[in-house]
């Protein structure tokens, strides 16, 4: 009797652990967009000389005060710059906040691993689920790998808040499709 009770408790613990470890499910765009332009839409805000963006909250505040539409991003593969080179498609190298929006296309359903590399802060979501987060300063480094469930092929909404303070800048997205290995997400997978 005691052994059976211990076995049931262990099984229940494993079931609960599996349920809490399940990958979050992304929500596809509904309706699915048509006639998208390539890349991602972006708006920028710039801090005045002598002021710095150090957090995502400061980046959001700067964008709320004065966002300016920028040249669309080709995708999310912006390699680490040399110090002083412009951040993404912005007009500045330092103290840049960016609001990024559009869609990412998954060609088949299944479980995907998603990873962002960023310099500096990033809060990114796809299909209503947070898939990348770092609130601070770092060199071009990973946020973390997030495993998600993609229920169907198609377009999924993407939103990201990004900032670059000083030094160099980068922003990348990598993914591993079902049964695949981690690769850079191609520019052709993005639209707005």
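-> sequence recovered:
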């Amino acid at each position: 009797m005691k052994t059976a009770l211990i076995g049931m408790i262990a099984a229940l613990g494993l079931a609960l652990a599996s349920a809490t470890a399940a990958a979050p499910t992304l929500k596809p765009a509904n309706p699915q967009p048509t006639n998208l332009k390539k890349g991602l839409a972006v708006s920028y805000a710039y801090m005045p000389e002598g002021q710095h963006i150090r957090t995502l909250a400061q980046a959001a505040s700067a964008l709320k005060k004065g966002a300016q539409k920028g040249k669309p991003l080709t995708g999310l593969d912006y390699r680490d710059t040399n110090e002083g080179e412009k951040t993404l498609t912005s007009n500045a190298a330092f103290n840049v906040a960016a609001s990024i929006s559009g869609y990412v296309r998954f060609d088949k359903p299944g479980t995907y691993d998603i990873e962002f590399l960023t310099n500096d802060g990033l809060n990114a979501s796809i299909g209503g689920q947070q898939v990348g987060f770092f609130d601070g300063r770092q060199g071009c480094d990973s946020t973390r790998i997030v495993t998600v469930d993609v229920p169907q092929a198609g377009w999924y909404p993407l939103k990201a808040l990004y900032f670059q303070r000083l030094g160099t800048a980068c922003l990348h997205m990598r993914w591993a499709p079902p049964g695949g290995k981690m690769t850079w997400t191609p520019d052709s997978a993005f639209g707005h």
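The first helix runs from residue 2 to 20.
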